[in-house]
Amino acid sequence: MNARRRLIIVRNPDKPDAEATMDSLVAGVGRRADVLATGVIDDVGSLAESHPDRVIVLGGDGSILAVVRALGNHPIPIIGVNFGKLGFLAEFSFDDVIGHLDAILDDPAIISRRMMLDATMVPAGRPTTRSVAVNDCVVHAGPPFRMVEFAISVDGDELTTFRGDGLVLSTPSGSTAQNMSIGGPIVQSEVPAIVLSPVAPHSLTHRPLVVAGDATIDVLARQVNAGTTVVIDGQVSIPMQAGDRLTVRRHPHDFLLIHNPAQPRWYTLTKKIRWGQ
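Below the sequence we write its predicted structure tokens.
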């Protein structure tokens, strides 16, 4: 008989229905697992110190991004229960969790390993800022919304000088977020790759580019606006000034996301994004 798994359950406090669902979920998983603690997503870092085997997140994709970022160097498999909109990462309903509880707890085949990015901003004469990016690292031109200019290199080799309205650097998981909205490629979630997509490039020859997952991308700000900002996962904002350098590379740790076994492999792509329809 399998040993009882240890869980923590966190919820998005802005989702009113999530609190009631949490109480039901604690009761529902009790037959097969021990719930070590419950709380809101801001508590997950301290709750994870109890070394759970799984983390259940009640919220949307943004909630999962926040939890993954808080877990940092502790890759604990995450089950996302969707209280958001589309739910690209949050694949489960309450009934799905209860109905597939044995697989969620014990089947390694449904654990998806996803790469993350390590983003380091080295400002000219200011402290360095470092952050993990689960989905993407987006450079926004910002007010007064004139074109910005960057010198971009990959693994130390000069790639191009780019002028336009911004730049999106995304993981495969994040390729269906802002990257997709500006015409960037959709990348299968487990593929080790970094997507570099220009936003409204001044030159038609600047097209989206997919590079190896172990590449190091340097973005040197040559001309920016007063409001130019690097936004990571839509949750962290870092001002960018002329002379600042943004370096993006693969994070040393992946994050682990549990796939809903009731959904076919391409369910999110074909049913939620309606790709090919």
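Residues 231 and 237 are 4 Å apart (CA to CA).
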